[in-house]
Amino acid sequence: MNKRWTFLFVVAVVVTLSIVTILNRPTEKDFKKWLQEEYMIDCSEDCSIIEVESVSGDITERIKFTDARGTYSPGIFTLRINKQYKSLDAPLQIKQIDVIGFNGRFYPLQNNDEF
């Protein structure tokens, strides 16, 4: 009888943790908020256009980038977003964001500090 209760307790803990993780899976709104907080990037409603502030000496300018290509992979526990943006002014200037969201937070998969 003791093994049965132990088994039921372990199953209950695993199910509870799974439900909490599923309910805390990040959304696109969380991604937009994370971009603003982490890199100070302003994002359109669906993040197809982003604005990055560039400081060069005393001159501050806002550069717009458009979504060139990317993937959006929602999973049961995670959300993976890999996007590549091209500058509207200089098409050869490319920025890439590759993140995975888990349990309400986003984690960069590539070290890209130049954003």
Please, could you describe this protein's structure?
The protein has helices at residues 2-23, 28-39, and strands at 42-43, 49-56, 59-74, 78-87, 94-102, 105-108. It is elongated, with a radius of gyration of 20 Å. The protein has a 6-stranded antiparallel beta sheet with strand order 1-2-3-4-5-6, with helices on one face. The model has no long low-confidence stretch (mean pLDDT 87). It is α+β, with helices and mostly antiparallel strands and 115 residues long. It starts with a helix and ends in a 7-residue tail after the last strand. The longest helix is centred in the N-terminal third of the chain and has 22 residues, at 2-23. It is 30% helix and 43% strand.
Q: How large is the share of residues in beta strands?
A: 35-45%
Report low-confidence residues grouped into runs of 5 or more: none
Strand order within the widest beta sheet: 1-2-3-4-5-6
Briefly note the structural class of the backbone.
Answer: alpha+beta
Number of beta strands: 6
The sequence of SSEs as H and E is HHEEEEEE
Gross morphology is elongated
Radius of gyration: 20 Å
Mean pLDDT: 87
Distance between the termini: 58 Å
Helix content: 25-40%
Largest sheet: 6 strands, antiparallel
- Count up the helices: 2
